[in-house]
Amino acid sequence: xxxxxxxxxxxxxxxxxxxxxxxxxxxxxxxxxxxxxxxxxxxxxxxxxxxxxxxxxxxxxxxxxxxxxxxxxxxxxxxxxxxxxxxxxxxxxxxxxxxxxxxxxxxxxxxxxxxxxxxxxxxxxxxxxxxxxxxxxxxxxxxxxxxxxxxxxxxxxxxxxxxxxxxxxxxxxxxxxxxxxxxxxxxxxxxxxxxxxxxxxxxxxxxxxxxxxxxxxxxxxxxxxxxxxxxxxxxxxxxxxxxxxxxxxxxxxxxxxxxxxxxxxxxxxxxxxxxxxxxxxxxxxxxxxxxxxxxxxxxxxxxxxxxxxxxxxxxxxxxxxxxxxxxxxxxxxxxxxxxxxxxxxxxxxxxxxxxxxxxxxxxxxxxxxxxxxxxxxxxxxxxxxxxxxxxxxxxxxxxxxxxxxx
Length: 406
What we know:
Blueprint: H1 7-13, E1 22-25, E2 39-46, H2 54-69, E3 84-91, H3 99-109, E4 114-116, H4 123-131, E5 136-137, H5 144-148, E6 152-153, H6 158-172, E7 178-183, H7 191-196, E8 205-211, H8 220-229, E9 233-237, H9 240-252, E10 258-262, H10 268-274, E11 282-285, H11 296-308, H12 317-333, H13 341-348, E12 352-353, E13 361-362, E14 378-385, E15 388-390, E16 398-399, H14 401-404
Parallel strand pairs: 2-3, 2-4, 4-5, 5-6, 7-8, 7-9, 9-10, 10-11
Antiparallel strand pairs: 1-3, 11-14, 12-13, 14-15, 14-16
Helix pairs in contact: 2-11, 2-12, 3-4, 8-9, 9-10
């Protein structure tokens, strides 16, 4: 039977948030013609630093504009159409341990009815929203409260599922032995347990290699050591910059085996830097890639980012996640008579959810990690071809629960 990691271990594995806190309401032309009372939504993200994802806030703004341009939210009972209004904030728990909580308190003071796409590691933030009876929809699961708090409503399994899935992806692609390559930190030291959890046999884990977090460090000796060990596959779990450097370095060191990474660590820009070295890389993802425009929801995402974005929004998991979260909230409020945090929470709890860019799921469905707020264990094994992340044939998703039961 496969091992299940503790909530504490999962939380330790998550990355810390960075940057300074700032927050304000989002005002654009698209909501000004709607005469109903604005519906305030909070988005809290990490700012400039090692895990900065600037496309997250940009995608959130573009999505709100798209919803408002399409008529906003029409409540039940014949009320006036209401615009969405974004209360956005970037937080740094490195320079200020309370920055994320300050963002949450500011959002609560501004009467938000939901948090969407939250991307900071802070149990206090989740608890603050729960205390105000405000659900966190599409929160990026990183800390213990994200996994367990009844106000948490993720749309994916996030880091817990994706990390465990890298080993499965490699073995499904023909690799027998798998080596783990990750950062040298207390959380990084937990990664091998994570990957081993769903391998065909515990002995299939062939070595663990821990890289310094400093992307400017000379990692040549590490790459040579990994290549010399000749594992069939490498599960690479690192930041975007380190992932890029490692894939290029491994190929230059002569490694010819398979490499699997998580979708949160690659982007259009990073693939361009990898060049030919990135070809064939397996990408484990929570969502269909933006290249799969045969999926009507992916096409909708691309069209909305093109029309309402600033031309610099990359189609990463962070962008897709906050886009799906905002649309889910807007859809649940359409025709509703109770447009409030408690009303939304009641609507979501135990409900079936269809976001179109991943398999449908029902909140409360058990998963092999035994974490109550993770809604699904379905992931997609994608491949880098021609510098693009491409979906598998038919857009197939894999249910990780089946591997835990073996």
